[in-house]
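Dear support,

I submitted the protein below through the web form. The confirmation email said the job was done, but the results page showed an empty box. After a refresh the structure appeared. I'm attaching both so you can tell me whether what I see now is the final result or a partial one.
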Amino acid sequence: MMRSTVINSFLVLVVALTGLGCARAARDTSGFALREETTVNSSYEDTWQTVKYVLREQGYELYTMDKRGYFVAYSPLKRVLWMQPKRTKFTVELARLSDNETAVAVESIRQIYGVTLLTHPNWHDRKQSDPAPGSALLEGVCARLAEGGEPAEAFADEVNAPAEIEVEPETVPLEEPVVVEASDLAPPADLEDLEDAADPEENSED
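What the results page shows now:
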């Protein structure tokens, strides 16, 4: 009887916490993201640099930049009063089609920060219903490329940049100390003797 009462009390507590939103089971988030794709008339290197530029220009925090064509970025965290923090995660994928054609895919998904029965506090995916952020990012990339994009030289420079060489500061040799002889410290000769030596004619008249 006592064991049955304890089990029932525990079940009631779990149901109450779940109803209050204090604990939730993990969701199946497959299909939550919105994805847009396009093909641009630009080299892979120029497109890679342009995607990096546009992500920063639109105020997103770059988390991953892979030269193989993979970006992960996040929008600034937002919170309304006591509500859970939320943000948008962007994933950008590039594929080289030819020397002057590159496929660009932008995927966006909402995220909220919280805890579930099966996880520690962390960011969790939620369904993205607003296509505007992903569309704005993709349009920004296309517009920048239409204006000329970012130079491919920067892409090569990042890969082939030589390591910085530390240059030791120039050392200035110390001057040897001046050696003072004992004779240099002797008192000066009598002034009269100096005058006689300087005027021998006056001495001869005497």
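Response: this is the final, complete result; the empty box was a page-load delay. The domain at 31-154 is CATH 3.30.310.80 (TATA-Binding Protein).
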